[in-house]
Amino acid sequence: MSSRFEPKGMLGKVVHELEETVIALILGAMVVITFVNVVLRYGFSSGLIWGFETVTFLFAWLILFGVSYAVKVTAHLGVDAVLNIVAPSIKRALGLLTAVLCIFYAVLLMKGSWDYWANFANLPQTTGRWFPTGIEEMRRTSYRAWYAVNDIPFPQFLSFLEPLMNEGEEYEKLPRFIPYAMLPFGAALLLFRFVQASVRLWAGHTSSLIVSHEAEDAVEDVKHMNAEA
Fold first, then answer.
1. In terms of Cα–Cα distance, which of 88, 77, 108, 105 is closest to 209?
2. pTM
3. What is the number of structural domains in the chain?
4. Whose CA is closest to 5, among 93, 73, 65, 84?
5. How far is the C-alpha of 52 from the C-alpha of 154, rounded, in Å?
6. Is 1 a domain residue?
7. 204 domain-assigned
8. Is 6 helix (H, G, I), strand (E, B) or coil?
9. Alpha-carbon separation of residue 215 from 2, 40, 207, 222 (angstroms)
10. Domain assignment present for 135
11. Distance CA 170, CA 162 (A)
């Protein structure tokens, strides 16, 4: 039977369940909003004005949150034809090189996502072209937390943000820094998962960052089920 990711320890199990729950809730919300919008549009010539934009943001959240989850459970697919024909020592070296490149990519993504989100959150961006070398000086004219989305209304339970982020002015629509917060959060989580995977590779607990083989796993699962039957 194909291998499955199994969290270790109580904390690992809690975090794993939390991640899967968040992914399920995002998927469920996307399905419900889309279904309601279709019924309203074709049945009542109406619709949720904020529905399309909400689903768009949820889809982006699903990708940004799910990509790190897939790294953790080794669900990403990859081509390992070269790795399978080289010696174990070379395979390990190539695996470590891949890990370094993945971490490098995650760092770049983290910097870019933070700088983009900070632009809407009244927070300073970082200096440096590739890596953060410092913090930019904030000016009053740099505050852009008043930028809002197009259609999603502002929920009243978030009104405490108005004096903190918008100088007491009321928001008519949801401020952009709220949905955009998934950018740095997802990038940071991806970086963390790549570091975890690299540590496992360095310690010899795995031989590659790529473990998932979808077709082979499906065949093995079918063989296992037939054997049990």
1. 77
2. 0.84
3. 1
4. 73
5. 16
6. no
7. yes
8. coil
9. 10, 40, 20, 11
10. yes
11. 6
